[in-house]
Amino acid sequence: MITTARKIFLRKIWLAPAIALLLTGIAMKSDAAPPQAANTAAQTSPQMPESFGTTLYGTDQVGDLTHLPPTKISVMPFRHLELRFALTGYLRSNIPLVASDGTKYFKAGYGDDPGMYFFVPRLAAFLNVPVERAYDLFLGTNLIVWFAVGAIGLMLIVHRWPLKLWAIFGYCLLLWFSYRKADIYTALSFPVVGIVPWLLYLRRKHSGTLVMGAFLFGTGLLAGTANQIRGQAATGLMIFAAILVAFELKRTWLAKSALLIALMAGFALSVAYFDSLIARRDAFLAASQPGYTQTVDHHSIWHALYIGLGYLKDNPYVPGYRDEVALQAVYSISPSTIPLSPEYEHILREQIFQIARKDPLFIATTLFAKLRVIIFLLLCWANFGLVAAAIHPKGWGIEAALWAALGFNALFGLIAIPQVQYLLGFIAFALIYGIVSLDWAFEGNRPGEIHARQRARVQRRFV
Q1: Residue 219: pLDDT above 90?
Q2: How far is C-alpha 38 from the geometric centre of its chain's CA atoms?
Q3: Is residue 388 pLDDT above 90, yes or no?
Q4: Residues 6+ apart with CB under 8 A from 255
């Protein structure tokens, strides 16, 4: 029987998603420098030998980005252009991840992870539709399908209808944010919302090793693919799944090892497939384009770390969060360096270390400014679940799994800047943490439930 205090608590829960919706936007308005898109319109700098577009994408045919055909789901202008180049390159060469401006070949998605430039052009060619429609179909399908799958899983693990409705409302808010931010950042949210509820459900139902193994293999496959769309997008999901299997499942260590192998096998299969695509692309470009130089095939960590130091306004080291800032810093030292090459990353790494040695307080102040926004987002999205977890703690294994995933996904905001699009995975885990914690707290108060769980823990110790 629910007490009056708990009834009031449940009523208050309905305010939390609305508060999260309002405060998430407010959280972005801090003393940060006004962030600009990572890839802005082509521009010329006296320190750059070529225009920004020519430097990055290997073509001077960047055109007027405002005249690109519209998409239903938002996409960054330069990424939109890259997708068009990727489709042209695929149709001309029949090799995935090869781009072309109609006159020469170059790598698709320069400076990006390869996944989007593999799936969208292939889908456009298969359906014989413009790349804009293929982009909308690819992202829209992933968002709708995985959020719907995750919502069904939530209905199975949450017991009380008020919490079920609140969980669906929270999912709808997160879906709205994912849709608005869109682009490659959707890969941060849809694997989490689609998979985590089902992992928790299978754990609760004590599913057989074969069923759990098959699901974990699929989880690894999805996580590996999501990481190819946005670097490390689903690594937090892998961490969550691995800790859950190791410390929460009622299995022998031999069975747990087999399950972890299944998880890693799915992940490795996806990585190996994309590595083979990249090797085939590089071989083609090396043969067809004299002077082709291989660069990193993912978001550069040192590039992101350097421009991330431009988060605070009016700092004396990095003038803002823009790609051009990093390019100018490198060209001021070595004008001939190819962007995103090993030498490019080495120069930026040294620049970061120099700033850290010269002014460690600046580094700490910048990180603290980012961290307070991340904590604020945690309070917005986990809200009453944090209180429930403090009063009625869950098992340490599931707590460790959730907090490890939260901590990893928070790194994206610390490395770059704490904008919503970079923290969609963090927000997804925070939302699920709040839901699971509330459900545990309310269900743990049923007569005899606590004693039953205590007896179960004692029995497990002697098994």
Answers
A1: yes
A2: 16
A3: yes
A4: 209, 249
